[in-house]
Amino acid sequence: MARPPDEPVRDLTEAEIARYREDGVVCLRTILPPDWVDRMAQAIDATVADPPPIVAAFSRQHEGFTGGIFLWKQEAAYHDFLYHAPTARIAARAMGATRVNAFFDHLFVKEPGCFLPTPWHQDLPYWPLKGTQICTVWAPFDPVSQETSGLEFVAGSHKWPQDFKPQAITKGAIDGDISGLEDPPDIEAERDRHDIRSWDMEPGDVLLFHGRILHGAGANASLAHRRRALATRWSGDDITWDPRPWKLQLLWDAGLAPGDPLGGPLFPQILPVRPGDDDGDRFPGPDLPPQDRLRAFLTRQARARPG
User: Fold this and answer.
1) Does residue 276 come out as left (phi exceeding 0), alpha (psi in the -120 to 50 range) or beta?
2) 26-64 core/surface letters (b: 16 or more CB in 10 A; e: else)
3) What burial class does residue 243 get, using C-beta atoms within 10 Å of its C-beta: 0-12 exposed, 13-18 middle, 19+ buried?
4) Could you tell me if 111 and 64 are in contact, meaning their C-beta atoms sit under 8 angstroms apart?
């Protein structure tokens, strides 16, 4: 049998699980093992120094921002993190899920003085998914504060009935007509009307948050400190495939029909470990999208770059 994910430094408490389900977000202190923190900090540095094509296309490195998705398909360290770090166990415990699949991983690096904010948004309207058991485990690899672009959340907003219009965060992720969705509220103009949560964090802490919670982040106003973070997205038992024109357009073939449960090679089941499934024990080498699709994407991204 393939090696299962590692255990976290500690288990989630019942109070933390209740907080996640009630507020849609919880900060879990000292839960990611130090060896994973060290290994992924080094991996992120290597990615920033020599970004693979998809990361380079999503990034605005001249403005101090490096980002990208599906790093686990492209680099061995992220593949190992997805399969073997404790993040899937953290997600399973919080969601109460019997089966946990990886949706994708997402890198966010804001260098000192990176002025790019992350607008207030929900995640789920971007994603070709439907259901309730969907969460993110957001792990920082530097100390985080509001000055260095710490995340903020509107507590309880994951229970609101609306799916808000996706906001432009990085180029190329969203396309299609989204006029049928309403704009998110102007949180900055009405901060006193909402229960806004944020935390100073240290490497080893993680944020666990629901796919429908409104959240955002400011610029990295620090001129001395960077903010490296890696988000892993996890689905539970009730998540199904729901592609729409305005939702995230994947470069790899999902191999799913609308209504199918999330799964297959692009969205591997991490828990429970399936007998005979050794995909997590070996990195098969960079698995890039079909060349014609990748070329078209890179061309579109290059044309969209400012200047």
Assistant:
1) left
2) bbbeebbbeebbebbbebbeebbeebebbbbbbbeeeeb
3) middle
4) yes
Residues 269/263, Cβ–Cβ less than 8 Å? yes
Which residue ranges make up each domain of the chain? 14-273
Q: Which residue has the tokens 């080498």?
A: 285
Quick: pLDDT tens for 279-302: 788 898 899 888 888 887 777 766
pLDDT tens-digit series, residues 29-52: 999 999 999 999 999 999 999 999
CATH class of this structure's domain 14-273: mainly beta
Q: Are strands 196-198 and 151-154 parallel, antiparallel or unpaired?
A: antiparallel
Residue 218 clears pLDDT 90, i.e. is over it? yes
For residue 55, the Cα-to-chain-centroid distance in whole angstroms is: 14
Q: Residue 41: which residues within 8 A CB-CB, separation 6 or more?
A: 141, 203, 228
